Every structure is written in C-alpha cells, then in structure tokens.
C-alpha cells in the first residue's frame, strides 16, 4: 500500500468514527447508567422517584436493584415495584414483561396474584372501542382468567371477575358491530352467524337481546321463518319488556300471514345503538409493601 493510500484510509476511518462517537455520547434523560450502589440506596431512590411522580425513572431504578443485587431478598420486591412503576407511567409493555418475568422466577410467591392482576390491568388500560381490533381485550380477559383460576380467593379476584364481565360485553359488542355491518350490506348469512355467536358465547352480556332480535331479522331475510319465530320466543321469554322484543314481535306479526316468507321483502334492520366504551376504572393499587420499605435491610428476609 502506498503512503498516499494509507493516509487516505486513515482520514476515512477517522471520519467514520467521529459521528459514531458523537452518537454514543447522547443519552436519554431517563437513562440509568450503571453506577454500583448498595441495595438500600437504589431501592430508596426508586421509592423517592415514585413518590414525586417520576414513575418511569422509578421503574428503572427498581429494575437496577434486581440487576445489581439479584440475590438480595429485596430484588423480588423491587421487581414487582418496577412493574407497578412502569404500569403507572403508561409503559404497559414494560409493565407486562417485568411482571411476567417476576412470575417466571417467583411462581409461588405471596405476591404472584398481584403480578397476574397487574398484567391484566396493563392490557385493560390499552383497550380501544369496539370499532377497532380487540386483540388486547382478549389478552386482558386471558390474564384475568388466569388469575381467577389460579387464585380464586385472592384479594384481586373479585375485581378481576368484574372486569371479565366488562370484557366479555366488549367482545360481544365487537361481534355485534361486525354483524350490523354485514346486515346493512345485505349479507344476511354472515350477519346471522355473528349474532348467533353472541347468543351462544356471550349470552349473559347486555348485547343478547339485540342479537336475538337481529336473528329474527336475518332469519326472515333468509326465508327461514321457523327459526325467526324461535329466536323471537327466546327473546320474549327472557326479555319480555325490552324494546328489542317489541321490534321482534312487530316483525313476526307482519310476516305471520305470508304463505311463503322467503318471498317476502327483507325487514329493515333496526337502528344500531350508540357505540359504548369500557367504563372508567380505578388504576391498579401499589403492590403490598414490606415494613420499613424506605430503608430496606438486605439481611432481613421479606415475607412470602
């Protein structure tokens, strides 16, 4: 290699390294650089940041307790506090992954029910209205279901069951939204299948009366009056005073005299109710705390 070539190569290498060094020097304000600190100091810093409202930083500091002192008795509690801090700062993915890691390591812990509950709440807080994809709704339902199955007497189970009822109602609402769309488009069979799914899988939700009434509509449109009458009968037996039964009854009366109901014009779909969002909820509480939490003693074994 000639001298000129070596000089050019050196200059080029320096030009490439300089911007990389500049990028490496930029740090996020919430980054926690590795500084070796004792467990008391780290835990206390995490708690202080939590109290002053810097939740994301608190989550990172609590995570540092686990990273720097993985065998400390307080690493387990710090991991749960980290998950809670991420949850309260709306960092739901971080909250879920931290709580899931906690459950993997500490399956039989006294606070395992809380970790399951926090996972469910982290999904629950991300749920959108029924016009959007409901994958997160199902994930929340699965998380709360896991809690109620594993820990039926936990202090968090009653709220989990309440939220499961709300989530099932929300999923039923999604099926109704799709069914109404198909019905408006004249796709009677596709609509009918959605309404049947609501009646079969979400029969205890608030959407069942409407689903039964729309089954009457779609069965009549498909030319299957016998099934329409059955749906109307179920509706009348279970919801006799509802507006949906009133609509179904009038439809049946109009079609009762038809010799060949299949030739009758399809009934006009009932107007759709207003889209309902999930009701507001209280955020998840802080994890159960140990005595003297602000000054934890590593030599003291926490309960659980």
UniProtKB/TrEMBL annotation:
Outline the extent of the Outer membrane lipoprotein BamD-like domain: 38-231
Q: Where is the composition biased (Pro residues)?
A: 280-289
As given in the record, the signal peptide range reads 1-23
Q: Which domain of life is it from?
A: Bacteria
Task: List the keywords (alphabetical).
Answer: Cell outer membrane, Membrane, Signal, TPR repeat
**An example Gene Ontology CC term for this record:** cell outer membrane
- Matches recorded under InterPro entries: BamD (IPR017689), BamD-like (IPR039565), TPR-like_helical_dom_sf (IPR011990), TPR_rpt (IPR019734)
Kindly list the places in or outside the cell where this protein is found, as annotated in its UniProt entry: Cell outer membrane
Task: Report any Pfam family annotated for this entry.
Answer: YfiO
One Gene Ontology biological process: protein insertion into membrane
Concerning SUPFAM superfamilies, the annotation shows:
TPR-like
Q: TPR repeats at which positions?
A: 39-72
User: Quick one: where is this thing mainly located?
Assistant: membrane
Report the PROSITE patterns cross-referenced here: TPR
Q: Where is this region: Disordered?
A: 260-304
Q: Quote the function comment for this protein.
A: Part of the outer membrane protein assembly complex, which is involved in assembly and insertion of beta-barrel proteins into the outer membrane.
Give the family per the record.
Belongs to the BamD family.
The record's subunit annotation is: Part of the Bam complex.
Name used for this protein in its record: Outer membrane protein assembly factor BamD
Species of origin reads Sphingomonas sabuli
Its organism's taxonomic lineage begins at: Bacteria, Pseudomonadati, Pseudomonadota, Alphaproteobacteria, Sphingomonadales
**Originating gene:** bamD
């Amino acid at each position: 290699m000639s001298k000129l070539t070596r000089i050019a190569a050196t200059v080029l290498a320096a030009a490439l390294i300089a911007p990389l060094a500049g990028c490496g020097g930029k740090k996020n304000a919430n980054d926690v650089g590795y500084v070796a600190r004792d467990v008391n100091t780290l835990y206390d810093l995490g708690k202080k940041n939590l109290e002053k409202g810097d939740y994301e930083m608190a989550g990172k500091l609590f995570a540092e307790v686990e990273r720097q002192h993985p065998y400390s008795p307080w690493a387990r509690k710090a991991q749960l506090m980290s998950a809670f801090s991420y949850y309260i700062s709306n960092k739901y993915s971080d909250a879920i992954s931290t709580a899931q890691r906690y459950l993997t390591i500490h399956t039989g812990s006294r606070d395992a029910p809380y970790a399951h509950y926090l996972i469910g709440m982290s999904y629950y807080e991300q749920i959108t209205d029924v016009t959007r994809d409901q994958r997160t709704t199902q994930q929340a339902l699965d998380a709360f279901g896991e809690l109620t199955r594993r820990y039926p007497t936990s202090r968090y189970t009653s709220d989990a069951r309440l939220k499961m009822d709300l989530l099932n109602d929300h999923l039923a609402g999604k099926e109704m939204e799709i069914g109404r769309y198909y019905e408006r488009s004249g796709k009677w069979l596709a609509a009918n299948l959605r309404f049947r799914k609501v009646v079969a899988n979400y029969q205890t939700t608030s959407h069942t009366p409407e689903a039964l009434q729309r089954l009457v509509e779609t069965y009549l449109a498909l030319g299957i009056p016998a099934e329409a009458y059955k749906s109307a009968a179920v509706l009348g037996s279970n919801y006799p005073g509802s507006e949906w039964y009133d609509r179904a009854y009038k439809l049946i009366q109009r079609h009762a005299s038809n010799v060949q109901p299949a030739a009758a014009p399809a009934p006009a779909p009932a107007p759709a109710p207003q889209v309902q969002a999930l009701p507001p909820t209280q955020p998840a509480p802080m994890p159960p705390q140990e005595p003297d939490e602000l000054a934890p003693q590593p030599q003291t074994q926490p309960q659980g």
